[in-house]
Amino acid sequence: MSTAYRKVLRDLWGNKGRTTLVVLSIAVGVMAVGMILSSNSLMERQITVAQKASQPSNVRMFLQGLIDDDTVHSIARIPEVEAAQGRAEGGIRWKPMRDAEWQDARVIAIDDYGAQLFDLLELRSGVWPSSQSVAVEWNHVIPFGVPELGSEIYFEVNERARPLIVGGTLRDPGEAAPPFATEPVFYVTRDVMERLTGVRDFDQLRFSILEYSEEQAERVADIVEDKLERQGVGVGFTWVQDPERHWAQETADGIGLILTVMAVASLFLSAILVINTINAVIAQQIPQIGILKTVGGVSRQISQLYLAGVVIYSLLSLALAVPLGALAGGMLARSMLGILNVPSAAPFQLVSSTLGIQLGAGLLVPLAAAIWPVLRGVAISVREALSRYGLGSGRYGTGGIDRILGRVRGLPRIAILSLRNTFRRMGRVALTQAVLVTAGAIFMMVVSTHFSFTEAVADIWRGLGSDAFVVFNGSQRIDEIVPLIEARSNVDRVEMWVRHNANARVPGETGPGGDFQVALQGIPRDSEMYTPKLTAGRGLDPADGHALLLNQKLAGDMGLALGDPIEIDLGEDGSSTWTIVGLIFDLINDQTTAYVHIDTLNRELHQVGRASVARIRAIDDSREAQTALTQDLRDAFDRLGIDVASARTATESQEEAEAQFSILTTILMTMAVLMAVVGSIGLSGTLSINVIERRREIGVMRAVGASSMDVALIFMGEGLLLGLSSWALAVPLSMLAGRPFVEALGPVIEFPAQYQLAVSGLWIWLIIVVVLSLVASWLPARRATQISVNESLAYA
Hints:
single chain; six-stranded mixed β-barrel; alpha+beta
């Protein structure tokens, strides 16, 4: 090994703190890129494998009636249909122990678990459902407190508890895990389904076609729908599924893209830290550069030495970042796949494509970042290098900012020194601020994004105006249900609504793809609860006839605008044309909701004075009071033999909706915290350079009586000033970037929220940046106090 490269290794080993700083600076960015790219790759691979393994059906129909085995077989005999299978699904109440409270659940039955055709259920443990046992979706066992295999659980049948054994767990590719799932799903045989719910036949139809294309699937769906309607069975809505693409693939891709951009930003910040750190190395070794030039070294050779050091830094950082990135990526993928109910891969995998990108980024980005400070440092003349310590040229005080700061009066002497010294190296300050400002802006932007989502959900639930709601199985007489509810305690107001699934289309369009699912909500003309969140147009007027408020997303999907007509197909009850008088922002029913007057909708449904949903506003709207009211109503209807599908509190529903978005914002916050770590490392590096360059000044201060505490406070004050100024710059930047970020993120997760500034996020980041600044400046300040007068002035 040559003497020159021994010098490189000696410098690295002799300055372990600086080496650690550089390695961590590079590793954080490279690890972030590896984590996100590994997660994206693993998720895409596993989702694709799971989708193909489940043998997905091409079309799912949710029926407004029941079909038997003969009807399913007749559908399967249609020439364009490859195979067909029925599924029964219903709501039920269950409890894990006899003395526990009843809870809502869903129960599903298929004809033969041993002869599934598509959407294959995968047995994870135990046995398939039998006449005495049930299976449960495996992702629902722990979150919903389902007992272990072999335990008895109880289902409510005619107000009595019917025991069944938990015989197995299975994975249903169409079910998600909490927080997207809000109740457990149990699987039973058709015989048990009949015992529990009184229904044996199917309310869902699934089938595959011979050659899939979206147009062909929609055309065959129309044929099947016509056949079912001739038999008196309506279709609530139809879902066409691409067998090669998972239902959550588009959302996963969008989230992955956003996280990739943030990871690249983190790598960019790491590159800025490399520039500052190499500046520190050059600043410390200016006399050595002069000596090397004196003994015949040329700029090219000296540059190679320092760039070789950067390569070693990069290799060390890759040794840390590659395995950590793979491990973190595997954990992130497992978490996301678990929520989507997709089997996970091994927890640690090195993805070849990601590894190549990490190696390239970990080597090339630091080298590219180091070239400018290295070339600038080795360009110094021998005379200048040997005559001073550092890169300064004695021009401090001549700049505009320097002159302004020089006129500051009235502050303590230490504070004035900190203020003036902070901005002595504007280039270095700019690089440090770029890191801190970017980290702060992203952190505050993510907090505001979370706040925007939660406020959007809260606005929607406030607009519904109720504290509890009861959904009935079938329509009930309004004049019978309202007095029953009003007689209960803690009831302020009751409104009966109609909820009905239908198909919507643009009038005159009859081709494939023209039908869209719409969830109709019939509300009273004098409703005091519902306040629409309008994005265009007006609300419903008591004088309106066939007027309709339509979800803005559904309107966009259909190509409809304010004032356009829309045709609503109610199946057996016929079709009618309505006019869109308002567009609304609403998350209910997967953003397919339309609001109309209840009496107009009832006339189209050929019923009078009936409704299927009771919405209740409570006198005491606390969580405990809502829960008590809901349970009281459920018990009262059970005693009267009125079939209730579900009874929920508004608080529970709102929190479940908010939880679906908290997962994404938690991941974004993790990336923001990584950037904050990068920022604190950069601040510490900047202050370390300041200590190196001002060794003589420190000696002079110590010689004229400055204490160690005085010296430490000067450097800690510089760190605090840099942190506070970065906060002041990051606040307006986060406001400017927050709105387009929320607007770009909304379509990705199909949640078009409006940006709202989270003021709390500004103060939280202020506290964080103050703490980070003090922590990051402590080590350089401590080093500064350890410089003796003799040591510092020896360089003069």
